[in-house]
Amino acid sequence: MAQTQHRNIVVIGGGIIGCTSAYYLTRHRSYSPSTTSVTVLEASTHGVAQGASGKAGGLVAKWAYPSELVDISFPEHTRLANEHNGKERWGWRFANCGNWEGRGETLTHRGTGGSLDTSSGVVSPRDESVHPDDLNWVKKHLTESYSPMSAPDGTAQVHPYLFTTSMMDLAMEKGATLLRGSATAIEQEVGCVTGVRYSDPIDGSSKVTPATHVVLSAGAWSPSIVASLPISATRAHSVTVRPNPEVTIAPYVLFTEIALPEGGVGTPEIYARPDNEIYACGLADDSPLPTNVDGVEVDQTACQSIWEQVASISTEFREATVEKRQACFLPVVDVRGGGPIIGEVRSIAKGLYVAAGHTCWGICNAPGTAKVISELIMGGRSIKMRNLEPSRYL
Ligand SMILES: Cc1cc2nc3c(=O)[nH]c(=O)nc-3n(C[C@H](O)[C@H](O)[C@H](O)COP(=O)(O)OP(=O)(O)OC[C@H]3O[C@@H](n4cnc5c(N)ncnc54)[C@H](O)[C@@H]3O)c2cc1C
């Protein structure tokens, strides 16, 4: 593309991948609002970060995968946090992270959460030496083993909703715009993208916004625009609670294996957050993907089950106020290396870029993905992501 030609970049999807892409596009050295426009097209009537990106755990890890993307993403997360005060703005911090195994205590009164007691004397004493000294929100005597997953500087966290909305706000400060609407098709002429057709949320009419470049970052919904993308959708539930403010919840992320008092094993992931929130998520299910993120249904039984599992090992969690019971869809790449899929899809149209299928590491890998996409579109790409290129998948 000639330097003087106006770039009209439309990013489909205001999740972490789309919003962070908008941020990197507007921070690229070749960017100027007079020569480049960046528009994020988002289908939710509630704005950005309404899907997995607003409801994930928020782990950012050096040991995540794929390594070629993590190697860019982790330092970029650190840089972004330093540059924009991520500590205050989106809860950036290093955290302890480990596998925790132990036993849950019986909840004597089953209910809606927040007011139950555990029965005493039903659990045999454990070897308390394996329990980290500062892990103050899990009962010591229930711990059977704890093994850290990385060195202290190997795992960090963000609040994913705050990170995603901050990326969008920072992109808008440099001239990016948010357009509400649901993309329905990529418009093209002689093999080049010319625009994105979308449904207007106000009157339901079909409109086209012009584009010289399109970034498809619609998470689990990406195949509704490019049907050949091998991305499927998996629903996962989570709950957040707010403990008593007098208790400072130690910074731990736990991958648990809880022997449940009623039999069976629960494996919730539990994230202590800097604002003293605790987040916990559970197993995935195969509920069908609704057409719009605003239509995601929450199964209250699944949320209650997560709450009970965590409450069975933590008084602080059990006595906390439940704030959110929610669900979202994870974009899963089921073939080859497991994705994500990042790059231009010339076999469909010149100017069409895919950045989707981030499975369980999209929060961690958003900055690396966005940096690659911005360099592919704006120039100066030095990073090779051959294993993630769309030609390997399509
Ligand atoms: C329970 C859970 C915990 C997780 N924990 C972590 C973690 O700790 N660390 C980590 O790195 N990752 C984690 N993940 C994974 C991470 O959440 C995802 O990989 C990431 O959020 C995907 O981001 P996305 O932007 O691709 O998709 P999404 O967040 O789903 O965003 C896609 C956006 O596209 C919009 N959209 C869809 N269709 C259209 C359309 N036709 N037109 C316009 N807009 C459209 C949607 O409304 C949505 O806003 C977790 C996921 C789950 C489910």
Automatic annotation (TrEMBL):
InterPro entries given in the database record: FAD-dep_OxRdtase (IPR006076), FAD/NAD-bd_sf (IPR036188)
GO terms of biological process kind: retrograde transport, endosome to Golgi
The organism's place on the tree of life at top rank: Eukaryota
Signal peptide range in chain numbering: none
Transmembrane portions of the chain: none
Any one Pfam family match given in the protein's UniProt record, by short name: DAO
FAD dependent oxidoreductase domain span: 9-376
An example Gene Ontology CC term for this record: late endosome
Region of interest (Disordered), ranges: 106-130
The name this protein goes by in its record: FAD dependent oxidoreductase
Organism: Boletus edulis BED1
